[in-house]
Amino acid sequence: MSQRQLAMQLELDRVTLNQIESGTGNPTFETLIRIADGLGADVEDLFERDEDLEG
After folding, report:
1. Is the pLDDT of residue 54 over 80?
2. Among 34, 42, 47, 53, which residue carries the largest CB count within 10 Å?
């Protein structure tokens, strides 16, 4: 699915979605839930884990 298609499905502006994806946006938790739902994922799947921080 393209970024444009996902933005349309989520009723988000493509530029907003691009900013979130590139790390320059500041989405609300509600927006993160919408993105995760649209991708069929959990919100936690949207974030990278830093292996060095895990015990």
Report:
1. no
2. 34
